[in-house]
Amino acid sequence: MIQEKPKSAYMEVFTPFSDEDISNIVMLKRVFECAQGDKDFAKAFAAGKFSDEQIARQKQIGVTFDLQELALCWTDDEFQSELLLCMENDDYSPPETLQTKLKEYPLLGLWLRFLSRKNRLYRATRRNIFRVPKCPPFDAWRWRRVLAARSELGYFGHYIDFPILAFELGDGCSVGCWFCAFSTQKLKTNLDYERYGAFFRDIAEGCVSLFGKHAAAMALLYYGTEPHDNPNYLDFIKDFKKVTGYATCTSTAMPLDADWLRSLIRFYREESQPWPRLSVLSKDMMNKIHDLYAPDELRDVELLMQMRENERRKVSGGRILSEHQGMKEREPGAYLDDIVPQGSIACVSGFLINTVRRDIQIVSPCYTCERWPYGYRVYDKAEFKDASDFPDVVRALIDRNMPAHPPRDAAARFRDDLLYKPTDDGFDLISPNQIHHFTGGAVHTALGNLIAQGDLTYDQLDDKLSEGGNPLLAGMAVNHLFDGGFMDELYSESR
Ligand code: SF4
């Protein structure tokens, strides 16, 4: 049993449960992982008919209860729909009819209570998108990007916590996943810890001075890179924690290096954080994970089933790019006819820093398309020489790209994902996932048409709107579009 030091918000999830409950929870987690990652087991699970081999396999990987103790999963429709509800509602309690049934299936009652607590915590985290008060221009820009991402990505946009920084500790990735949405090239080199550890710590200090400790901690130490590639990944994580006070998260597709993964699990368990997360690339890999690690070791470790045959659809970006238009290609009245596929796996709204190439890109999630094949827009980029000029380069990027108000001499254009449609008293803007209505008669009709032209600066737009109209109302309408994240903010030399 790994020692831990409670209590973080995450550890509160376990507060009401006894040791025996927790040992059942980790076994239940394992059974549901098999039902997700193994097609044959999923079939058997749906029918409640398991082969001797499947039963023996469950025992072998540490599941000691009888699978028939979960029979409600395949015999009872009410249980199946409640399983979804318990994950979505803050004050979930099973209806009386189900409570009666659960008396005979206490393991499933336990699973519902656990999922409900865990998902309540995750929902609360998602609702509270942190802000960056130490740097108001960046904070306002990032908030516009959060609104834009939610408009473009719909439901999925509300599942992103929008970290502000990602540091790549190498150039490229050695894994080469077939679905890589960032289409990362082969690993060329890593940031050497012996030589550049101090450089990295100074960069982290620079981020604290720019954004404050709390916001700087909202970072990843990988993006189009694989944590396992850098042999000192954990040292970098620990150093970053020393500077910012927080253990940043880890997602890895290399779960079979047991010494390495155990060191990560130990680190996050000491921090009481629900990491690392594992990308599971095949059924064979899932089986090896279950053989290597005991159920309790993976208590806080989520397995993300990424196998080719898995029903969970991959984001069609990067290496498997194919463009989807979502609602933009649907007729009025048919907008909600079908779900729009997840549009991005990106999350960072801020600065993507490659510590080897020493470049910085301003990025934010968007709907994946030919122009933005990795699911994020690149707003601007710059290079830095060393840790001493790093803060100045970031500051210059902020000054150039993050105005508090619409920049007077820049082109006033709609965001590039938006389809403009004039209506009787205004206009609609249609993103891949959402229809935004702007109504209000004369101001909006003129405003929409002029912006859709795409060749006016904000100053020229103001002039045109003031001719015969109410300049105050027109100005407010433009600001509303800008603050709501509807306007194009890509940097261009000519703007
Ligand atoms: S998905 Fe991650 S691990 Fe896989 S190739 Fe891309 S960057 Fe590497």
Looking at this protein, list some descriptive labels.
495 residues; alpha/beta; 5-stranded mixed β-sheet; 3-stranded parallel β-sheet; 17 helices; globular; binds iron/sulfur cluster
Description:
There is one protein chain. The protein is α/β, with parallel strands linked by helices. It has three domains: 117 residues, no CATH class; 218 residues, no CATH class; 65 residues, no CATH class. It contains 17 helices and 13 strands. Strand 8 and strand 9 form a beta hairpin. Helix 5 packs parallel to helix 7 and helix 9 runs parallel beside helix 11. The structure holds iron/sulfur cluster. Iron/sulfur cluster binds next to loops.
Bound molecules: iron/sulfur cluster
Report helical residue fraction: 40-55%
Rg over CA atoms, rounded to whole Å, is: 25 Å
> How many independent structural domains?
3
Order of helices and strands: HHHHHHHHEEEHHEHEHEHEEEEHEEEHHH
Largest sheet, if any?
5 strands, mixed
What is the average per-residue confidence, as pLDDT, rounded to a whole number?
93
Brief sketch in words of this structure:
The chain is α/β, with parallel strands linked by helices and 495 residues long. The protein has helices spanning 19-37, 39-47, 52-60, 72-75, 77-88, 96-102, 106-127, 136-153, 193-211, 213-216, 233-244, 258-270, 283-292, 390-401, 442-453, 458-466, 471-483, and strands at 165-168, 170-171, 189-190, 219-220, 251-252, 277-280, 302-305, 350-354, 359-365, 376-383, 419-423, 426-430, 435-439. Bound molecules: iron/sulfur cluster.
